[in-house]
Amino acid sequence: MSDPETAAKKAGMCPERLSRIVPFFQTYVDNKKLAGVSTLVWRKGELAHFGVQGQMDVARGRAMAQDTIFRIYSMSKPITSVAVMMLYEEGRFQLEHEIGRYIPELGDLKVYAGGPARGMVTKAASRQVTIRDLLTHMAGFTYGFMEVHPVDEAYRHFQIGGVDLTTADLEEFCKRLGRMPLLHNPGEAWSYSVSTDVLGRLVEVVSGLSLIEFFRTRIFAPLGMTDTDFQVSAEQMPRFAANYQRNPKTRSFDLFDDPETGRYAKPPVFMSGGGGLVSTQADYLKFCQMMLRGGTAPDGTRLLSRPTIALMTQNHLPDGRDLEGFAQGAFSETTNAGIGFGLGFAVTVDEAKAQITGPNGTYYWGGAASTIFWIDPVEEMIAILMTQLMPSGAYPLRRQFQQLVYAAIDD
């Protein structure tokens, strides 16, 4: 392996400018805004930067390391979307198929028409939800944590929470979801939601495997992703980071989830394809490299075709619009201006409007604990930031990381 300076130069990046990344984020650690952080940049076949700093577990005095295991939350969504499209490539369904063909509980959904959560009025949907609606978050589902709409409240009442649902498996989850009205008619708006958890159930129904079995045999094994799962084993536990939450009063962080006593220490009941996985920098890099390579694993195993990846990573919002004029809801893991949405990924469609460096066609997503990745096909670049701080909008970590990375391009 090349030394960092040589690797950076081979990657067409300036070592001195890349060296700004670590001290920049060290200020977050020194000011007790983050316990620790890990940053990685891979470009043109070279690992140009891999920095770790701070602690992954303050109480136990464990330093952040290159093999630290993180809760990636919604960075699970692209992996589930890839699983769906692998089955699509086998001809198992069409994107325009109604999800009710495969999950009958979701075959006769109504739409919210007014009233409070415990007395909602509903009406017939203009059409039923399709697989494409689910991949693009245009189905009309929501998340209970949004807390802005009566349907959100109903999700909380019936424990349709997505990543924290521990009392029901994916089949039961879909049954509960089928009793809920949609926020809006399918295809009428973009609403960040439990759609990807529904897609996880679709993978199970179509493949005949549990979601984790499909992930392990069809994605993780070919890519060598040995630390990505819905559970952390006893052997892995010393590498598992604590998760923290920003305290608005002290402007520092408090413990949100202890690694050794939290839900990841035991087998999951609910395998959330929308937000349940843990992973490492090295593992997630392997997933991103597969995408950038056009769908192949290092050993030549093909997970997806290049045309399918091209389909997934273009904007699928109606009339080529961005999220600014199309998104509903209080939260998602992306900004809206200049950003479109594909089949499982946000995608930059207007770099100037987005007001952040990164060419059109760059695709990405993030997770609730402030993690982020992006893949830039134009620059042949992958960047990943891992930390464990909730909520993901506490600080502008993602945009700052992006500024620092693109500033280091030197060819």
Task: Describe the 3D structure.
By secondary structure, the chain is of the alpha+beta class. Helices cover 28% and strands 18% of the residues. The strands form 5 sheets. The chain has an 8-stranded antiparallel sheet with strand order 3-2-1-16-15-14-13-12, with helices on both faces. The protein has a 3-stranded mixed sheet with strand order 9-8-17, with no helix packed on it. A two-stranded antiparallel sheet has the order 4-10. The radius of gyration is 20 Å and the shape is globular. The chain has 2 domains: 4-81 and 210-406, DD-peptidase/beta-lactamase superfamily (Beta-lactamase, 3-Layer(aba) Sandwich); 93-207, Methane Monooxygenase Hydroxylase, Chain G, domain 1. One of its GO terms (molecular function) is hydrolase activity.
Share in helix: 25-40%
Question: Largest beta sheet, briefly?
Answer: 8 strands, antiparallel
Indicate the CATH topology of the largest domain.
Answer: Beta-lactamase
Number of helices: 13
Annotation, overall tally of beta strands:
17
In CATH terms, the superfamily of the largest domain is DD-peptidase/beta-lactamase superfamily
Element-level helix/strand string: HHHEEEEHEEHHHEHHEEEHHEEEHEEEEH
Which secondary-structure class do the elements indicate?
A: alpha+beta
Pfam families: Beta-lactamase (PF00144)
Domain Beta-lactamase-related: 25-400
Organism: Pyruvatibacter mobilis
GO molecular function: hydrolase activity
